[in-house]
Amino acid sequence: MERDQRCWLVAEAPEKLGSLVARLEALGWTVTRPKAPFTSRCLEDDEACLVGLVQLDGMTGDPLRQLESLLLHSRCLWFAILPDDALEDAARRSLVATLCHGFIEPGVDGAELGYLMRRAAALVQLQRQELALHRRTAPLSADIAEYEMVGTAPAMRTLFQTIRKVAAVDAPVLINGESGTGKELTAVAIHERSPRVSGVFHAINCGALPDQLIQSELFGHEKGAFTGAAQRKIGRIEAADAGTLFLDEIGDLPLEQQVNLLRFLETRRIQRVGGLSEIAVDVRILAATHVNLEEAVREGRFREDLYHRLNVLQVKVPALRDHPEDIEILARYFFERFIREKPGRLKGFSRDALQAMRDYSWPGNIRELINRVRRAMVMCDNRLIQPEDLGIERRQGPASGLSLCQARDEAERDALVAALERNAHRVQAAARELDVSRVTIYRLMEKHGLARPMSEAPA
Ligand SMILES: Nc1ncnc2c1ncn2[C@@H]1O[C@H](COP(=O)(O)OP(=O)(O)OP(=O)(O)O)[C@@H](O)[C@H]1O
Protein backbone atom coordinates (compact mmCIF):
# COMPACT_ATOMS: atom_id res chain seq x y z
CA MET A 1 0.00 0.00 0.00
CA GLU A 2 0.96 3.67 -0.29
CA ARG A 3 2.55 4.90 2.92
CA ASP A 4 1.17 7.85 4.84
CA GLN A 5 -2.46 7.34 4.11
CA ARG A 6 -4.68 9.03 6.62
CA CYS A 7 -7.67 7.64 8.45
CA TRP A 8 -10.04 9.01 11.06
CA LEU A 9 -10.43 7.49 14.45
CA VAL A 10 -13.51 8.72 16.26
CA ALA A 11 -13.54 7.39 19.81
CA GLU A 12 -15.01 8.46 23.12
CA ALA A 13 -12.59 6.20 25.00
CA PRO A 14 -9.44 6.15 22.82
CA GLU A 15 -7.39 4.74 25.68
CA LYS A 16 -9.12 1.40 25.04
CA LEU A 17 -7.85 1.39 21.45
CA GLY A 18 -4.13 1.85 22.01
CA SER A 19 -3.14 -1.45 20.45
CA LEU A 20 -5.48 -1.00 17.47
CA VAL A 21 -3.86 2.37 16.76
CA ALA A 22 -0.41 0.80 17.04
CA ARG A 23 -1.42 -1.84 14.49
CA LEU A 24 -2.77 0.83 12.11
CA GLU A 25 0.44 2.85 12.39
CA ALA A 26 2.51 -0.24 11.80
CA LEU A 27 0.50 -0.74 8.60
CA GLY A 28 1.48 2.76 7.45
CA TRP A 29 -1.68 4.64 8.42
CA THR A 30 -1.56 8.09 9.99
CA VAL A 31 -4.38 8.14 12.51
CA THR A 32 -6.19 11.47 12.95
CA ARG A 33 -8.47 11.94 15.97
CA PRO A 34 -11.14 14.63 15.87
CA LYS A 35 -12.21 16.07 19.19
CA ALA A 36 -15.64 15.54 20.76
CA PRO A 37 -18.43 16.56 20.32
CA PHE A 38 -18.51 14.43 17.22
CA THR A 39 -20.63 16.55 14.90
CA SER A 40 -20.17 16.91 11.15
CA ARG A 41 -18.09 20.06 11.80
CA CYS A 42 -15.31 18.20 13.51
CA LEU A 43 -14.13 16.51 10.29
CA GLU A 44 -12.51 19.64 8.92
CA ASP A 45 -10.31 17.99 6.37
CA ASP A 46 -12.44 15.03 5.43
CA GLU A 47 -11.02 14.83 1.90
CA ALA A 48 -7.56 14.11 3.26
CA CYS A 49 -8.77 10.84 4.81
CA LEU A 50 -9.97 7.79 2.95
CA VAL A 51 -11.24 5.55 5.70
CA GLY A 52 -12.71 6.20 9.14
CA LEU A 53 -12.96 4.05 12.22
CA VAL A 54 -15.57 4.78 14.81
CA GLN A 55 -15.71 3.29 18.28
CA LEU A 56 -19.32 2.39 18.96
CA ASP A 57 -19.41 0.10 21.97
CA GLY A 58 -21.14 1.73 24.88
CA MET A 59 -22.28 4.68 22.79
CA THR A 60 -25.97 5.65 23.08
CA GLY A 61 -28.34 8.64 23.07
CA ASP A 62 -27.15 12.08 21.96
CA PRO A 63 -23.52 11.17 21.21
CA LEU A 64 -24.82 8.43 18.91
CA ARG A 65 -27.10 10.89 17.14
CA GLN A 66 -24.20 13.32 16.70
CA LEU A 67 -22.16 10.53 15.23
CA GLU A 68 -24.90 9.86 12.74
CA SER A 69 -24.62 13.38 11.39
CA LEU A 70 -20.83 13.07 11.25
CA LEU A 71 -20.96 9.85 9.21
CA LEU A 72 -23.68 11.23 6.96
CA HIS A 73 -21.53 14.17 5.94
CA SER A 74 -18.25 12.37 5.58
CA ARG A 75 -17.00 11.15 2.22
CA CYS A 76 -14.92 8.33 3.74
CA LEU A 77 -15.87 4.72 4.19
CA TRP A 78 -16.41 3.94 7.86
CA PHE A 79 -15.79 0.84 9.95
CA ALA A 80 -17.49 0.51 13.30
CA ILE A 81 -15.27 -0.84 16.04
CA LEU A 82 -17.36 -2.90 18.41
CA PRO A 83 -17.59 -6.32 19.93
CA ASP A 84 -20.30 -8.47 18.26
CA ASP A 85 -22.65 -8.30 21.25
CA ALA A 86 -22.76 -4.48 20.97
CA LEU A 87 -24.95 -4.93 17.88
CA GLU A 88 -27.85 -5.98 20.07
CA ASP A 89 -28.63 -2.31 20.66
CA ALA A 90 -31.14 -1.24 17.96
CA ALA A 91 -29.86 2.32 17.48
CA ARG A 92 -26.25 1.15 17.07
CA ARG A 93 -27.32 -1.66 14.78
CA SER A 94 -29.21 0.76 12.53
CA LEU A 95 -26.24 3.16 12.38
CA VAL A 96 -23.88 0.36 11.39
CA ALA A 97 -26.33 -1.05 8.85
CA THR A 98 -27.01 2.24 7.09
CA LEU A 99 -23.82 4.28 7.44
CA CYS A 100 -20.89 1.89 7.84
CA HIS A 101 -18.94 -0.06 5.27
CA GLY A 102 -18.30 -2.82 7.82
CA PHE A 103 -17.56 -3.53 11.45
CA ILE A 104 -14.53 -4.94 13.20
CA GLU A 105 -13.73 -6.22 16.68
CA PRO A 106 -11.27 -4.08 18.66
CA GLY A 107 -8.86 -7.02 18.76
CA VAL A 108 -8.86 -7.63 14.98
CA ASP A 109 -5.46 -8.93 13.87
CA GLY A 110 -3.05 -6.84 11.84
CA ALA A 111 -3.32 -8.84 8.61
CA GLU A 112 -7.12 -8.68 8.48
CA LEU A 113 -7.13 -5.02 9.48
CA GLY A 114 -4.57 -4.21 6.77
CA TYR A 115 -6.61 -6.02 4.12
CA LEU A 116 -9.90 -4.32 5.07
CA MET A 117 -8.35 -0.86 5.21
CA ARG A 118 -6.56 -1.31 1.88
CA ARG A 119 -9.70 -2.47 0.08
CA ALA A 120 -11.81 0.31 1.58
CA ALA A 121 -9.21 2.94 0.64
CA ALA A 122 -9.08 1.63 -2.92
CA LEU A 123 -12.87 1.81 -3.16
CA VAL A 124 -12.99 5.40 -1.88
CA GLN A 125 -10.31 6.43 -4.36
CA LEU A 126 -12.32 4.84 -7.15
CA GLN A 127 -15.49 6.62 -6.03
CA ARG A 128 -13.74 9.97 -5.84
CA GLN A 129 -12.22 9.53 -9.30
CA GLU A 130 -15.64 8.68 -10.73
CA LEU A 131 -17.18 11.72 -9.11
CA ALA A 132 -14.42 13.98 -10.41
CA LEU A 133 -14.92 12.56 -13.90
CA HIS A 134 -18.65 13.29 -13.76
CA ARG A 135 -18.01 16.81 -12.57
CA ARG A 136 -15.68 17.36 -15.52
CA THR A 137 -17.90 15.82 -18.18
CA ALA A 138 -21.31 16.66 -16.80
CA PRO A 139 -23.23 19.79 -16.31
CA LEU A 140 -21.06 22.41 -14.78
CA SER A 141 -20.04 24.24 -17.92
CA ALA A 142 -19.67 28.01 -18.00
CA ASP A 143 -23.24 28.25 -19.26
CA ILE A 144 -24.57 26.45 -16.27
CA ALA A 145 -22.69 28.40 -13.68
CA GLU A 146 -24.04 31.49 -15.36
CA TYR A 147 -27.71 30.59 -15.51
CA GLU A 148 -28.01 27.49 -13.40
CA MET A 149 -29.44 26.11 -16.60
CA VAL A 150 -28.10 22.72 -17.34
CA GLY A 151 -27.57 21.46 -20.84
CA THR A 152 -24.80 20.79 -23.29
CA ALA A 153 -26.80 19.58 -26.31
CA PRO A 154 -26.78 21.71 -29.47
CA ALA A 155 -30.39 22.80 -28.83
CA MET A 156 -29.42 24.15 -25.42
CA ARG A 157 -26.26 25.82 -26.75
CA THR A 158 -28.45 27.64 -29.27
CA LEU A 159 -30.76 28.68 -26.43
CA PHE A 160 -27.83 30.03 -24.39
CA GLN A 161 -26.61 32.04 -27.39
CA THR A 162 -30.08 33.46 -28.00
CA ILE A 163 -30.37 34.41 -24.33
CA ARG A 164 -27.11 36.35 -24.54
CA LYS A 165 -28.23 38.18 -27.66
CA VAL A 166 -31.68 39.19 -26.47
CA ALA A 167 -30.37 40.14 -23.04
CA ALA A 168 -28.26 42.90 -24.57
CA VAL A 169 -31.25 44.87 -25.91
CA ASP A 170 -34.37 46.22 -24.21
CA ALA A 171 -37.15 45.06 -26.55
CA PRO A 172 -39.95 42.72 -25.42
CA VAL A 173 -39.28 39.00 -25.78
CA LEU A 174 -41.78 36.22 -26.35
CA ILE A 175 -40.60 32.92 -24.91
CA ASN A 176 -42.21 29.83 -26.40
CA GLY A 177 -42.00 26.30 -25.13
CA GLU A 178 -43.95 23.41 -23.71
CA SER A 179 -44.85 23.33 -20.06
CA GLY A 180 -41.94 22.61 -17.73
CA THR A 181 -39.20 23.22 -20.30
CA GLY A 182 -37.60 26.13 -18.45
CA LYS A 183 -39.34 29.26 -19.81
CA GLU A 184 -39.24 31.07 -16.47
CA LEU A 185 -35.61 30.07 -15.96
CA THR A 186 -34.90 31.49 -19.43
CA ALA A 187 -36.60 34.75 -18.46
CA VAL A 188 -34.49 34.98 -15.29
CA ALA A 189 -31.36 34.29 -17.33
CA ILE A 190 -32.23 37.10 -19.76
CA HIS A 191 -32.81 39.50 -16.86
CA GLU A 192 -29.55 38.51 -15.17
CA ARG A 193 -27.56 39.14 -18.33
CA SER A 194 -29.30 42.40 -19.13
CA PRO A 195 -28.34 45.95 -18.10
CA ARG A 196 -31.38 45.77 -15.74
CA VAL A 197 -29.71 43.17 -13.56
CA SER A 198 -29.58 45.51 -10.57
CA GLY A 199 -33.35 46.07 -10.84
CA VAL A 200 -36.03 43.60 -9.73
CA PHE A 201 -37.32 40.60 -11.67
CA HIS A 202 -41.07 40.22 -11.16
CA ALA A 203 -42.98 37.20 -12.45
CA ILE A 204 -46.76 37.09 -12.88
CA ASN A 205 -48.70 34.02 -13.89
CA CYS A 206 -51.50 35.55 -15.97
CA GLY A 207 -53.47 32.30 -15.82
CA ALA A 208 -53.48 32.24 -12.04
CA LEU A 209 -54.88 35.72 -11.38
CA PRO A 210 -58.62 35.87 -10.67
CA ASP A 211 -60.44 37.86 -13.41
CA GLN A 212 -61.95 40.41 -11.04
CA LEU A 213 -58.58 41.22 -9.43
CA ILE A 214 -56.34 41.16 -12.42
CA GLN A 215 -56.49 44.84 -13.31
CA SER A 216 -55.71 45.99 -9.79
CA GLU A 217 -52.96 43.34 -9.51
CA LEU A 218 -51.29 44.57 -12.69
CA PHE A 219 -51.88 48.31 -12.42
CA GLY A 220 -52.55 48.86 -8.71
CA HIS A 221 -55.39 50.89 -7.21
CA GLU A 222 -56.00 54.02 -5.19
CA LYS A 223 -57.55 53.97 -1.73
CA GLY A 224 -61.35 53.72 -2.04
CA ALA A 225 -61.25 52.81 -5.73
CA PHE A 226 -63.72 49.99 -5.04
CA THR A 227 -65.29 48.28 -2.06
CA GLY A 228 -62.51 46.70 -0.08
CA ALA A 229 -59.76 48.99 -1.43
CA ALA A 230 -58.85 50.27 2.03
CA GLN A 231 -55.29 51.22 1.07
CA ARG A 232 -53.46 52.37 -2.01
CA LYS A 233 -51.87 49.40 -3.70
CA ILE A 234 -48.93 49.44 -6.08
CA GLY A 235 -49.49 47.10 -9.02
CA ARG A 236 -47.02 44.54 -10.26
CA ILE A 237 -46.03 46.59 -13.31
CA GLU A 238 -45.20 49.62 -11.20
CA ALA A 239 -43.39 47.43 -8.65
CA ALA A 240 -41.09 46.21 -11.42
CA ASP A 241 -40.01 49.78 -12.30
CA ALA A 242 -36.40 49.81 -13.56
CA GLY A 243 -36.45 46.02 -13.69
CA THR A 244 -38.00 43.22 -15.71
CA LEU A 245 -41.60 41.98 -15.69
CA PHE A 246 -42.18 38.39 -16.72
CA LEU A 247 -45.73 37.66 -17.87
CA ASP A 248 -46.10 33.89 -17.75
CA GLU A 249 -48.96 32.17 -19.58
CA ILE A 250 -49.69 35.41 -21.42
CA GLY A 251 -52.23 33.52 -23.57
CA ASP A 252 -54.49 33.28 -20.51
CA LEU A 253 -54.77 37.05 -20.08
CA PRO A 254 -58.44 38.05 -20.51
CA LEU A 255 -59.14 40.15 -23.63
CA GLU A 256 -60.11 43.21 -21.59
CA GLN A 257 -56.74 43.22 -19.83
CA GLN A 258 -54.95 42.66 -23.11
CA VAL A 259 -56.15 46.15 -24.14
CA ASN A 260 -54.76 47.68 -20.95
CA LEU A 261 -51.45 45.91 -21.34
CA LEU A 262 -51.20 47.04 -24.94
CA ARG A 263 -51.84 50.63 -23.91
CA PHE A 264 -49.06 50.37 -21.35
CA LEU A 265 -46.64 48.91 -23.90
CA GLU A 266 -47.40 51.76 -26.28
CA THR A 267 -47.27 54.64 -23.82
CA ARG A 268 -45.04 53.20 -21.06
CA ARG A 269 -47.47 54.78 -18.60
CA ILE A 270 -49.97 53.22 -16.26
CA GLN A 271 -53.02 54.46 -14.42
CA ARG A 272 -53.90 52.89 -11.10
CA VAL A 273 -57.53 51.78 -10.77
CA GLY A 274 -59.39 54.80 -9.39
CA GLY A 275 -56.39 57.03 -10.07
CA LEU A 276 -56.50 60.24 -12.07
CA SER A 277 -52.91 60.67 -13.14
CA GLU A 278 -50.70 58.58 -15.35
CA ILE A 279 -47.41 57.28 -14.00
CA ALA A 280 -44.39 56.60 -16.18
CA VAL A 281 -42.95 53.14 -15.60
CA ASP A 282 -39.72 51.83 -17.05
CA VAL A 283 -40.08 48.08 -17.32
CA ARG A 284 -38.82 45.48 -19.74
CA ILE A 285 -41.50 42.96 -20.65
CA LEU A 286 -40.75 39.29 -21.15
CA ALA A 287 -43.76 37.07 -21.86
CA ALA A 288 -44.09 33.31 -22.12
CA THR A 289 -46.65 30.96 -23.52
CA HIS A 290 -47.01 27.24 -24.01
CA VAL A 291 -49.98 27.67 -26.36
CA ASN A 292 -49.73 28.69 -29.97
CA LEU A 293 -50.47 32.41 -29.83
CA GLU A 294 -50.85 32.76 -33.60
CA GLU A 295 -53.65 30.25 -33.43
CA ALA A 296 -55.16 32.12 -30.49
CA VAL A 297 -55.01 35.30 -32.62
CA ARG A 298 -56.75 33.52 -35.50
CA GLU A 299 -59.45 32.30 -33.15
CA GLY A 300 -59.96 35.77 -31.70
CA ARG A 301 -58.77 34.81 -28.19
CA PHE A 302 -55.66 36.99 -28.36
CA ARG A 303 -55.32 40.50 -29.78
CA GLU A 304 -53.19 40.63 -32.89
CA ASP A 305 -51.75 44.09 -32.06
CA LEU A 306 -50.63 42.89 -28.61
CA TYR A 307 -49.15 39.76 -30.14
CA HIS A 308 -46.98 41.85 -32.48
CA ARG A 309 -45.96 44.18 -29.64
CA LEU A 310 -44.79 41.26 -27.51
CA ASN A 311 -43.30 39.20 -30.30
CA VAL A 312 -40.44 41.56 -31.17
CA LEU A 313 -37.79 39.01 -30.18
CA GLN A 314 -38.46 35.31 -29.87
CA VAL A 315 -36.84 32.61 -27.80
CA LYS A 316 -37.77 28.98 -28.26
CA VAL A 317 -37.07 26.70 -25.31
CA PRO A 318 -36.66 23.13 -26.58
CA ALA A 319 -38.72 20.25 -25.25
CA LEU A 320 -36.64 17.70 -23.35
CA ARG A 321 -37.22 15.09 -26.07
CA ASP A 322 -35.43 17.48 -28.47
CA HIS A 323 -32.24 17.34 -26.41
CA PRO A 324 -32.19 13.75 -25.13
CA GLU A 325 -28.40 13.98 -24.70
CA ASP A 326 -29.09 16.13 -21.64
CA ILE A 327 -31.43 13.72 -19.85
CA GLU A 328 -28.68 11.91 -17.99
CA ILE A 329 -26.80 15.11 -17.24
CA LEU A 330 -29.94 16.74 -15.86
CA ALA A 331 -30.90 13.66 -13.86
CA ARG A 332 -27.46 13.56 -12.23
CA TYR A 333 -27.59 17.29 -11.60
CA PHE A 334 -30.90 17.03 -9.74
CA PHE A 335 -29.67 13.91 -7.94
CA GLU A 336 -26.70 15.89 -6.60
CA ARG A 337 -29.03 18.70 -5.59
CA PHE A 338 -31.46 16.49 -3.68
CA ILE A 339 -28.94 14.08 -2.19
CA ARG A 340 -28.49 16.62 0.60
CA GLU A 341 -32.08 15.86 1.61
CA LYS A 342 -31.43 12.13 1.75
CA PRO A 343 -27.80 11.41 2.38
CA GLY A 344 -26.89 7.82 3.04
CA ARG A 345 -26.47 4.79 0.89
CA LEU A 346 -27.95 6.12 -2.33
CA LYS A 347 -25.23 6.43 -4.95
CA GLY A 348 -26.92 7.19 -8.27
CA PHE A 349 -28.79 5.59 -11.15
CA SER A 350 -28.62 2.01 -12.37
CA ARG A 351 -27.89 1.42 -16.06
CA ASP A 352 -31.49 0.27 -16.53
CA ALA A 353 -32.78 3.46 -14.97
CA LEU A 354 -30.62 5.58 -17.30
CA GLN A 355 -31.86 3.58 -20.28
CA ALA A 356 -35.49 3.90 -19.16
CA MET A 357 -35.05 7.66 -18.85
CA ARG A 358 -33.58 7.84 -22.35
CA ASP A 359 -36.50 5.82 -23.76
CA TYR A 360 -39.20 7.85 -22.03
CA SER A 361 -40.88 10.72 -23.88
CA TRP A 362 -41.03 13.25 -20.97
CA PRO A 363 -44.34 14.97 -21.70
CA GLY A 364 -43.89 17.13 -18.60
CA ASN A 365 -40.31 17.98 -19.61
CA ILE A 366 -37.73 19.06 -17.03
CA ARG A 367 -40.30 19.64 -14.28
CA GLU A 368 -41.43 16.02 -14.67
CA LEU A 369 -37.81 14.84 -14.63
CA ILE A 370 -37.22 16.71 -11.37
CA ASN A 371 -40.33 15.20 -9.79
CA ARG A 372 -39.47 11.67 -10.90
CA VAL A 373 -35.86 11.87 -9.70
CA ARG A 374 -36.95 13.29 -6.37
CA ARG A 375 -39.62 10.64 -5.90
CA ALA A 376 -37.18 7.89 -6.91
CA MET A 377 -34.68 9.12 -4.33
CA VAL A 378 -37.33 8.76 -1.65
CA MET A 379 -38.63 5.41 -2.85
CA CYS A 380 -35.30 3.72 -3.57
CA ASP A 381 -34.17 1.17 -0.98
CA ASN A 382 -30.96 0.25 -2.79
CA ARG A 383 -27.76 2.01 -3.65
CA LEU A 384 -28.84 2.64 -7.23
CA ILE A 385 -32.15 3.97 -8.49
CA GLN A 386 -34.08 1.46 -10.61
CA PRO A 387 -36.64 2.19 -13.38
CA GLU A 388 -39.51 1.24 -11.07
CA ASP A 389 -38.37 3.86 -8.52
CA LEU A 390 -38.77 6.42 -11.30
CA GLY A 391 -42.18 5.04 -12.18
CA ILE A 392 -41.25 4.71 -15.86
CA GLU A 393 -40.82 1.00 -16.24
CA ARG A 394 -43.92 1.05 -18.44
CA ARG A 395 -43.21 0.11 -22.01
CA GLN A 396 -42.80 3.01 -24.41
CA GLY A 397 -43.64 2.84 -28.07
CA PRO A 398 -46.10 0.59 -29.86
CA ALA A 399 -47.70 -2.17 -27.86
CA SER A 400 -47.22 -5.82 -28.65
CA GLY A 401 -49.61 -8.60 -27.76
CA LEU A 402 -52.31 -6.20 -26.55
CA SER A 403 -55.95 -6.44 -27.48
CA LEU A 404 -57.41 -3.38 -29.20
CA CYS A 405 -59.28 -2.56 -26.02
CA GLN A 406 -56.08 -2.69 -23.92
CA ALA A 407 -54.18 -0.63 -26.47
CA ARG A 408 -56.95 2.01 -26.39
CA ASP A 409 -56.82 2.06 -22.63
CA GLU A 410 -53.05 2.56 -22.64
CA ALA A 411 -53.27 5.34 -25.19
CA GLU A 412 -56.03 7.02 -23.18
CA ARG A 413 -53.97 6.86 -19.99
CA ASP A 414 -50.84 8.17 -21.73
CA ALA A 415 -52.76 11.10 -23.27
CA LEU A 416 -54.28 11.94 -19.89
CA VAL A 417 -50.98 11.78 -18.00
CA ALA A 418 -49.25 13.86 -20.66
CA ALA A 419 -51.97 16.56 -20.67
CA LEU A 420 -51.92 16.78 -16.89
CA GLU A 421 -48.12 17.03 -16.82
CA ARG A 422 -48.13 19.71 -19.51
CA ASN A 423 -50.68 21.73 -17.57
CA ALA A 424 -49.03 21.47 -14.16
CA HIS A 425 -51.89 19.17 -13.05
CA ARG A 426 -54.53 21.83 -13.60
CA VAL A 427 -57.61 19.78 -14.43
CA GLN A 428 -59.40 22.65 -16.12
CA ALA A 429 -56.50 23.33 -18.48
CA ALA A 430 -55.96 19.63 -19.24
CA ALA A 431 -59.69 19.31 -20.01
CA ARG A 432 -59.49 22.24 -22.38
CA GLU A 433 -56.48 20.78 -24.14
CA LEU A 434 -58.07 17.34 -24.57
CA ASP A 435 -61.38 18.91 -25.50
CA VAL A 436 -63.37 17.10 -22.83
CA SER A 437 -65.16 18.28 -19.70
CA ARG A 438 -63.54 18.48 -16.26
CA VAL A 439 -65.90 15.74 -15.09
CA THR A 440 -64.54 13.45 -17.81
CA ILE A 441 -61.00 14.17 -16.66
CA TYR A 442 -61.93 13.24 -13.08
CA ARG A 443 -63.67 10.08 -14.28
CA LEU A 444 -60.61 9.05 -16.32
CA MET A 445 -58.25 9.82 -13.44
CA GLU A 446 -60.31 7.52 -11.27
CA LYS A 447 -60.43 4.83 -13.95
CA HIS A 448 -56.66 4.86 -14.40
CA GLY A 449 -55.86 5.17 -10.71
CA LEU A 450 -54.27 8.62 -10.98
CA ALA A 451 -54.14 10.80 -7.89
CA ARG A 452 -56.41 13.84 -7.84
CA PRO A 453 -54.70 17.20 -7.21
CA MET A 454 -55.27 18.19 -3.55
CA SER A 455 -56.65 21.61 -4.31
CA GLU A 456 -59.24 20.60 -6.90
CA ALA A 457 -62.53 18.87 -6.45
CA PRO A 458 -64.82 17.46 -9.10
CA ALA A 459 -67.56 19.77 -10.32
N1 LIG B 1 -32.03 23.69 -18.26
C1 LIG B 1 -32.39 23.55 -16.98
N2 LIG B 1 -31.47 23.25 -16.06
C2 LIG B 1 -31.82 23.07 -14.76
N3 LIG B 1 -33.08 23.20 -14.31
C3 LIG B 1 -34.03 23.50 -15.20
C4 LIG B 1 -33.74 23.70 -16.57
N4 LIG B 1 -34.89 24.01 -17.22
C5 LIG B 1 -35.87 23.98 -16.29
N5 LIG B 1 -35.36 23.69 -15.08
C6 LIG B 1 -36.13 23.56 -13.84
O1 LIG B 1 -37.37 22.92 -14.23
C7 LIG B 1 -38.46 23.48 -13.52
C8 LIG B 1 -39.46 24.04 -14.51
O2 LIG B 1 -38.86 25.16 -15.15
P1 LIG B 1 -39.69 26.51 -15.45
O3 LIG B 1 -40.64 26.83 -14.35
O4 LIG B 1 -38.71 27.56 -15.86
O5 LIG B 1 -40.51 25.96 -16.69
P2 LIG B 1 -41.69 26.67 -17.48
O6 LIG B 1 -41.50 26.31 -18.90
O7 LIG B 1 -41.74 28.14 -17.14
O8 LIG B 1 -42.95 25.91 -16.87
P3 LIG B 1 -44.51 26.34 -17.04
O9 LIG B 1 -44.82 26.27 -18.50
O10 LIG B 1 -45.24 25.29 -16.28
O11 LIG B 1 -44.65 27.71 -16.46
C9 LIG B 1 -37.89 24.53 -12.60
O12 LIG B 1 -37.66 23.94 -11.33
C10 LIG B 1 -36.56 24.88 -13.24
O13 LIG B 1 -35.62 25.35 -12.29
TrEMBL record:
CDD domains: AAA. This is Sigma-54 dependent transcriptional regulator. Residues 149-378 form the Sigma-54 factor interaction domain. Signal peptide: none annotated. It comes from the Bacteria. Keywords: ATP-binding, Nucleotide-binding, Transcription, Transcription regulation. InterPro entries: AAA+_ATPase (IPR003593), AAA_lid_NorR (IPR058031), Homeodomain-like_sf (IPR009057), HTH_Fis (IPR002197), P-loop_NTPase (IPR027417), Sigma_54_int (IPR002078), Sigma_54_int_dom_CS (IPR025944). Pfam families: AAA_lid_14, HTH_8, Sigma54_activat.
